[in-house]
Amino acid sequence: MSNIKIAQISCGTEYSGIQSEIENAAGTVGGKMVYPDVSYDDITRAVDEFGFDPVSPQLKLMIARAKALADGHYDADAVFIATCFRCAEGALVRNEVRRYLQEHTRLPVVTYSFTERLKAAQLLTRMEALVTIVAKKELLARERQVGITAGIDSGSSTTKAMILQDNKIIGKAWTPTGEVMASAQEVLDQALAEAGIKFNNLEGIGVTGYGRFLIGRKLDANLIQEELTTNSKGAVWLADRQRGEATIIDIGGMDNKAITVRDGIPDNFTMGGICAGASGRFLEMVAKRLRVDITELGALADKGDWSKVNMNSYCSVFGIQDLVTSLAAGHTIEDVAAAACHSVAEQVYEQQLQEIDVRQPIIQVGGTSLISGLVRAVGDMVGSKPIVPENSQYIGAAGGALLSSGFLEGQ
Amino acid sequence: MKIFIMPPNSLILYDLVERFGHQPLSIMAELRDRVTEREMESPPLNVTLKDVTKGLKYAGIEVPSGVRGRMAVWGPLVDEAEAAIIMHNTPFTFGCVGCHRTNLLLMHRIRKKKIPTLEVEYPEDEEEGKIMVTKIKAFLEGLK
Amino acid sequence: MIMIAPTSELTPDQLARFIHGLGYEITIKETCYGANIEGDKELIGKIVPEVRKLDPNRIFIKVRAYPIGDERRCRAHHGSRPGFNQMEKEWKDLPFIEAGLCAAEGGEECPEKPPRRKLSVEKLMQIAEEDNR
């Protein structure tokens, strides 16, 4: 599909030097940025009706443009809402406009809080997701898997495969990512063996993650899709939360993701970490220093009290120094484990969750969601206990298998 | 004299300053150089990353990028200005003048500079139009 | 960018034809509100006073950032840019400025209105008490 019209509702993009990048990103994935036309009188009226009168006029214009879309006065396929990072007024309007559009239209929306240091890959993923949501709308509406399908998630640190049959998991496997295709083949073979079926029995294959294009081509997959929409679908399917709002948090080995979804469709996400101090890798280092296996760290942390240990470093190196000092001062390894989990959760909260509006429930996924102490720490931070679905590390693979089955019906 | 106008993209102020014999320092002329940069294959819209970094002269890193980017364009114009006219309560400041925070900072910089500055209200009817224009005329003529 | 106030009898078409008639080598584009002209700075400097003479208090001029027909600013191409609404409002209010220019020309005295002050607490209390009776 070409030229999907993406309505831009924003403040500050042209003065942050990123407007051309936005338009380029849209062009790359077959979209085109458009600006809903409004007249001066529409703006005054729209702000009145909306009931939020921001001081900055450009934000008033954002409201009027959103209303033009909602009232059907302007035609677009998707909406991109963006304001400057660190602008309070902008953040309020960005979120209220996002909610308003989701309540009053069926248009897919992504939001973005940017700085001049635009993360091009993140922007592209957002645009690609928007275009995917428009172009594959029917496919994304799928909530039940049918037939026998496989999903492969080729991540930067691990590769996962999952086989589903009639909405049930019948095989799964993971391995650290080495050579992309070989790793994918390995986990697929293992998952097939567990399921007790042959490759030829598969009726569909969905591939996501960094290596999706290579693997997709080699295996002749019927679905090759970015991880934002695929992971979201996988997470809400695994957690059985297909309807309503949710926030998906994935604290990874190297980087972290937080995705907000509505009815399983993502509308915003944040990705990346400031430092390894806020990642699963730090917890691995802590486990090693405490001489426990990483799988035991969570249970240890559950027994400890984080507040007894001073650990709030933003760096894994200094974080480990804090840990050494605490142990030397006679703190228990339980307290130290709890402090490490708390420190990671706190940094994810402060550095990343700020960029999105956290919505309940929280679905925590990824390998680190198996560390109970970390899940508890995240829960303390966001104010409610996260849901950790079974097989939470397989969201991408589950999403791939679920969505690829969408091509089967009607055949 | 070089007159900084606020809002810097106002047709009304630009016209009046030029009409009464002074040089309006126009944001539009500044932007024109940027958007028509011939050496660049794809000229940026309004400002580049480099501009936003230059804006650090006027506002710190903790300030949103859109504020710094705007200040990068207007700040140097204020530095250059010999006099200024500020029009308050303009109902239409969208786009480049759409950020109220930037506008506040800009006004502060103008006032701090202690150059001859006239502050007027945006007119809502003919009577107010008369008050504003006669004040601006008197101010500009007084500068000669 | 040349704008004709809504009170003027002059049409964008007449304006554009007048500028064409001056015979300078510049680009002229008629718009809904007047015309945009583009070309050598010196030439533009010669044209501006001539244009003003057509209807001095109802023609307004400023520099525009984007060149004529620039797709990035083209309304037909992807909808209007924010500055459009500003021009729309300023254009509507040009008659106020016209009134001001006429007053300035005629040397009319235009005393400023006293600024609005907030009601004093004493006065407000007095009103409330009267209302209570």
List its traits.
heterotrimer; A: 411 residues; alpha/beta; Rossmann fold; Nucleotidyltransferase, domain 5; five-stranded mixed sheet; four-stranded parallel sheet; 15 helices; 20% strand; globular; C: 133 residues; alpha+beta; four-stranded antiparallel sheet; 6 helices; 47% helix; elongated
Helix and strand arrangement:
The complex is a heterotrimer of chains A (411), B (144) and C (133).
Chain A: E1 4-10, H1 19-28, E2 31-34, H2 40-50, H3 57-70, E3 78-84, H4 88-104, E4 109-114, H5 120-135, H6 137-140, E5 148-154, E6 158-165, E7 168-176, H7 180-195, E8 204-209, H8 212-219, E9 223-224, H9 227-239, E10 245-251, E11 256-262, E12 265-271, H10 280-290, H11 294-303, H12 316-328, H13 333-351, E13 362-365, H14 372-382, H15 395-404
Parallel strand pairs in A: 1-2, 1-3, 3-4, 5-8, 8-9, 10-13
Antiparallel strand pairs in A: 5-6, 6-7, 10-11, 11-12
Helix pairs in contact in A: 1-5, 2-3, 3-4, 9-15, 10-12, 10-13, 11-13, 11-14, 13-14
Chain B: E1 2-6, H1 11-19, E2 23-25, H2 27-35, H3 49-54, H4 65-80, E3 83-88, H5 100-113, E4 117-121, H6 126-142
Chain C: E1 2-4, H1 12-22, E2 27-30, E3 34-38, H2 41-54, E4 59-61, H3 75-78, H4 83-92, H5 94-105, H6 121-132
Antiparallel strand pairs in C: 1-3, 1-4, 2-3
